[in-house]
Design a protein that fits this description.
- By secondary structure, the chain is an all-alpha fold.
- It has 31 helices and no strands.
- Helix 13 runs parallel beside helix 16.
- It starts with a helix and ends in a 5-residue tail after the last helix.
Length: about 1100
Amino acid sequence: MVGKATLPWLRPQDASQWRGRAPPRHSRPELVDFQNLTKSNARHNLEHAFSVAERHLGITPLLDPEDVFTENPDEKSIITYVVAFYHYFSKMKVLEVEGRRLGKVIEHAKETERMIEGYGGLASDLLTWIEQTIASLNSRSFANSLAGVQHQLQAFSTYRTVEKPPKFQEKGNLEVLLFTIQSRMRANNQRVYTPHEGRLVSDINRSDACHLWMGAKETWLGQLEVPQALEDLDVAQHRLDGLEQEMATVASQIAAVNQAADGLLASGHPRSPQVRQCQEQLNERWDRFRELVAERRRAVGSALRLLNYRLEGEETRQWLQSKAQVVRATAELGRDLAGILATQRKLYGIERELVVAKDRLAALRSQADRLAEERPEAAGEVAERLAATTAAWDELQEALGEQAASLGEAGQLRSFLQDLDDFQAWLFGAQKAVAAADEMPATLAEAEELLRQHEAARRDAEEHAAAFAALLEAGERVVGEQEDPQYEGLRQRLRGVEVGWAALGRMAETRHRFLTQCRGFQEFLRDAKQAEILLANQEYTLAHLELPATLEGSDAALRRFQEFRAGMESSAEKVPEAVANGNKLVAEGNIFSEKIAEKCQALQERHRAVMAKAEEAAGLLQDNHELQTFLQSCRELDAWVDEKMLTAQDTSYGEARGLHSKWQKHQAFMAELASNQGWLEKIEMEGKELVSRKPQHGEVVTRRLEELRRRWDGLRGAAEEKGRQLFEANRSALYAQSYQELESWLGRAKEELRAAEQAKDLTATNLLLKRLKRLEEQVGARMKELEELEWQGPTPAGDVPDGDGQEQRLRQRFLELLEPLEKRRKELETAKAMYQLGRDLEDETDEESGLVMLKRHVRQQRSIEDYGQTIKELAGRAQQLLAAGHPEGEQIIRLQGQVDKHYAGLKEAAEERRRRLENMSHLFQLKREVEDLEQWIAERDVVASSQEMGQDLDHVTLLREKFREFARETGSVGQERVDRVNLTIEDLIDAGHVEAATMAEWKDGLNESWADLLELIDTRMQLLAASYDLHKYFYDGGELLALIAARRQELPQDLGEDAGTVEAFHRMHSAFERDLQLLETQGFLSNLPLRSSKSMRMKSRDEGRAPP
């Protein structure tokens, strides 16, 4: 900023430094020629600066050089002058900003003008090309030759695929450019640009070339006549196929035109009616054109099918007649075996060809029916040709029947020969299939697939077993005892069939065994690969195992390794299972036994190595964990020693002012050291034990223990030295004060014993016993303190009181205090025993104690039941004594009766106590459930009673969704819990529980709280719904106002300069009126007052006043 440029001039070290300085030097350095100025001539420099400021900046010189060139210039005057420079440059900046904004507006307008000029040029070029193309297409005449027509078709295809697509893209670009221009002008509040007549999008659409293409094709289709020659029909069919391809391209173009038109209509284009009309005309003409093409294609196809039917029918008829002549000619071959074999070969071939001929005859019948329907004028010719072909078929069948009847007994031989040929052909194919399938499967899936294929071939062979047996039986009948050499050839063929059948069985068995072994090998490879992956993962984990240097890291590493060991244990059987399966294959003699054995050995070695490494890693981690535990204990003790060393080195003892207070604090500190001596000894013992078990850690542990012992000795030495200094500082005063404190404490202790309250219950008794124990401990500590004072007491001097007499008096007072302490302890222990007995007999207790007592009573009741057998034995012995005439037999019987009576009473009392304990346990459980449920309802009450109504529409919508979820969850979970508690209470009341009235009160209070919660939820749902309506009203009203304002801005301010402009403005105004009517028909404006009144009622209710 310019103001920052003047700051250095305003900040001299002192007032005298303003001499020779002026703002132009810092603000506008180009106005001053510094080379012609000298530092020694300060007066001239000031005059020149004031002159330049007045001449170039218009700032009046308020100062003279003498006002500045002085030892003590007036600072306020100078600042007033400098402020004029600041205002000048600030105003220049504002003008500069306004100039830049104006420049942007002008540049934006120039850019829009350039876009308008570009639109006009592009539209003119496109219209010119369209007019030239229309003239060129309309002036064409079709050639009279096929080559000429093909050349014209190729030229038109080039126009459609090469010339037209870029122009179509240009038309789309023109539409985008026009929309951009109009949008920019609307944004700048300029009059919207409207192209001149003839350059509108509608004008370009009317010039679209799709109509021209359809016109040319319609002319060609109208002149197309269905030819009668097959070659001409093929040419016409080919041209129609090419037309189908062109129609596919044109269809995509028409779809693009429809998409562009829909976009213009959706954007509210001023020429929307023209665009819609052009779109409808194009689609209607396209539909008519497709119907015309389909009609011409049907006509050409029908003619082509008729010619093909004629040719096929004639060829089929002639072939059938020729085969009938061949069949009749077989009658001259003779009735011997050679003639029968020759006849068999010919007839066998004809019968195989008849299968194909039958299908051709059925196809001819289908074609005849279709042609009769399509071309009624040719129905007679079609039926005549079909009848001729059918007659030839019947003639051939008749010849075959006559030949079969003429053969007579030779027919059996012929049938056998045919079956023999068929079976030999199948056998050869089956052997070839089995012999060719010798490839080695590379995967388990391939092995299983080959095995399935082999099983299918085996089932096929089993299905042909019956045919093989029938063939052998027929061969025996035909050949019999014939000695003709030709029959000997038949015997050899039969033996060859038998040999081939046996060979097929052996080949199938061998192949099955081979495939089975391959599948077993692939299954083993699959299991072995899974085991190798498992071992590789385990090896990687063990190889990257680290020993952490902290206890936390060691704990984490140990947990991770335990999880790793658990995973190893869960998958421990995978490797042995894979090895066992491999050994089984080797034992069965698998063809891949060598590879399987090598793989099994490798797996076993890797598995043993992994297990050994895991054990080693477990030991290392455990050893490291023990070491880190020891080192952590050492670090903690070390930190404690550091902290206490600061205390030992501090001579002030905090807030302790007197010497005796310091001595007491020091004594407490020494006691703390003594109590923590065991900590050090425990660490030393743990370290020695660790070294004995893990000698590899001996050096680290020993060094750490030595360091700890050295620091501990240093701490203790410092504390003892400090205590010695305190003790020697004023020993006499310390002892006198200590004696006084002991006497004062003894007086308080006696007073406490004298004023001790009496025990009223077990709890108070336990509390009094704790106080008494604490007092006894204090007495012991004070007596020890007295002994230390006697041992360390100072030598009596003239100014020191008699210490021995005072010590004797204190000792006597301590002895007198011990007797009431002992008496008080006996009294409290007796009272405790009495209260404890009464407590054990009470049933009213808490839930945990009630469960304990119930379990204890169950054990007691079980022991009572166990005594039943003993009492029975006693009764039996009493009867024996009475029967034996014992002198006290009757007395024994009476005593036994009393025992039985007392035992029965004991069992009844135990059962009654058990029932009471169970009732109390149920009551405590129910109370806990009721309290938990009431707490849960109270927590839900806080949420349901919230007064948050939302800040805006989005906020209140979010609140409604969250509260709906809250209400659903509360209703489902809460109702279930309330019903469960109610059912429990009703069951206990029906069972006659002694606290039925209390449980009924709990039930009523719980149901009332639940009903209040549901009412709160319903009330908040209504409040949130009303808040939503209010915010929705404000939101919709704001949108409506914004929409009306936007539509109002779109209305032009002027009335138009010509008829076209006025018409366009009129259409825009009509569209505006339709939009307003649409808002009314949608019900928004009609519902607005109702929603407003509802919102006002809600707002009035929230403010606590009546609605207007």
